Amino acid sequence: MSVGFVLAAPVAAHVAAQSAPVDAYALTTGRLVGGAAALVALAGVIIGGLALARSAGRTGRTGRTGLFGGRRGAVMSLVAGLTGTVVGALNLAVADGGPGTGNGVIGGAMAVLLGLPALVLGRLTLVRHPRTGRPTSRSGEERAEPVR
Hints:
Blueprint: H1 3-17, H2 29-55, H3 70-94, H4 105-128
């Protein structure tokens, strides 16, 4: 074997491993995963905003009723935000190119950027709606009467 053939083998393997150019409108796996993660994170932001508004009493309904009210909406927002953030970050981690390469970089970045506010909104709603049925103080003492 010649030295030129030995040196050319890794170059040929690198060229073969590169992905082919992707059309701008082609739906690749990376774009599908990134877009789905961004939509899940967006749903988390919407659900978290509705749950927070209902917990504040701004919609005319009580915060504990409805599909997105109270703890249920807060937990749904947390789960959707965490799912969108994790899947978007994983999509960004495995992408081997920048925007426009078909790897879903834009969708993954949007998922991370939308998932974080969904987590914050879900947490704010959970803070406003403490769990009922638990004692108000951790030591079991009764609450002090207000001074009049």
